[in-house]
Design brief:
The protein is mainly alpha-helical. The chain has 2 domains: 54 residues, Multidrug-efflux Transporter Regulator, Chain: A, Domain 2; 159 residues, Globin-like, CATH 1.10.490. Helices cover 70% and strands 5% of the residues. The protein is built from 11 helices and 3 strands; from the N terminus they run E-H-H-E-E-H-H-H-H-H-H-H-H-H. A 3-stranded antiparallel β-sheet has the order 1-3-2. A hairpin with a 5-residue loop joins strand 2 and strand 3. Helix 7 packs antiparallel against helix 8 and helix 9 runs antiparallel to helix 10. It is globular.
């Protein structure tokens, strides 16, 4: 499609970002007939922008931003600091990280928190994509630091999974405290899960890049 008509159709990724659900959820809705779509000759689903917008309930358009509900990067950073203290009980190696590496990890952790909150509150697909890309970049840097200091990939993944839970719990907590309805809370947590999965993938890529032999880097 070319010209203005192209703007009327969205890829599954664009549609899922706009609604705030995972592509897998959107596929299930499409298969069940809850939202109409057509499949291109190449096998890709396309969704009408109007149909996607129609999936958003009126109250969702007026949902207060997470910052207005009291969820800020500063609050999320405090949550992670508490979790870091607990983490030393199951991962003593955290204490062994020197300050030269610990400070960048802190900085990028704060950047990830701010970018994710911006991602959740953005209403424009481009803004959401840019915020998520920022978070992915920082997750990749954290993965590279972990690889450079010799942390095995398994430990890097375990650390990420343990640190993602406070984020999800905090989002669930603010939704509960501020009285978001069940549907809105579910969409928020589904979106958080998908975004955090992408950050984990970025961290693993960063770790692999850090431990890749220099000769292989030259060949690439």
């Amino acid at each position: 499609m070319r010209g203005p008509s192209r703007r009327e159709w969205m890829s599954i990724h664009e549609a899922s970002v706009m609604i705030g659900v995972s592509p897998a959820t959107l596929r299930r809705w499409s298969d069940a007939g809850d939202i109409k779509a057509f499949t291109t000759p190449g096998g890709h689903r396309r969704f009408s922008r109007a149909a996607v917008a129609g999936m958003l309930p009126a109250d969702r358009r007026g949902r207060p931003k997470l910052g207005q509900l009291g969820e800020t990067p500063e609050r999320m950073t405090r949550v992670y600091r508490r979790e870091l203290h607990r983490a030393t009980q199951w991962a003593p190696w955290i204490e062994a990280i020197d300050e030269a590496d610990r400070q960048p990890l802190r900085d990028h952790g704060q950047r990830i928190a701010a970018a994710l909150l911006a991602f959740f509150d953005a209403t424009d697909p481009e803004e959401r994509g840019a915020a998520l890309a920022t978070a992915e970049d920082s997750a990749g840097v954290c993965g590279r630091i972990a690889g450079r200091i010799g942390l095995p990939c398994e430990a890097t993944v375990e650390a990420f999974l343990r640190f993602r839970m406070p984020f999800v719990r905090e989002l669930g907590g603010v939704a509960r405290r501020r009285g978001l309805d069940t549907a809105e809370t579910t969409r928020l947590l589904e979106t958080a899960t998908e975004a955090l999965d992408r950050l984990l993938t970025a961290a693993i890529r960063g770790h692999e890049a850090a431990i890749r032999p220099e000769s292989e880097e030259i060949e690439r």
